[in-house]
Amino acid sequence: MKFNFTKGKNNSTTLAIRMAISLVLALIVGVGFILLRESLIAHNKVSIWNGINSILFQDITTYEGRNSLGIFYILGQLFINCLQLIIIPMVFSSIALAMCHISDTKKL
What we know:
By secondary structure, the chain is mainly alpha-helical. The chain has three helices and no strands. It has helices at about 10-40, 45-55, 70-100.
């Protein structure tokens, strides 16, 4: 079953709607994990939460995380490093293109 939220709308509206839906779902999942953590800790099931934490969220670069998997930590670090990798060439190319479009060399 496929939902069509964007019938008759342009591509930018479609992208904005998909991004809004993704943001809301991510917030719901985040709040769900917080509620799960608090519920497990309140019911004295800390070991279950520690297992979930080590699989999904643990910082694997610390001493405490040496035996953890940290899936979301790894994905987050990959995302941040990719952003850092993109920024310098993007700034350089935008400066180079701006200089190429200047027709008067005295303005340069």
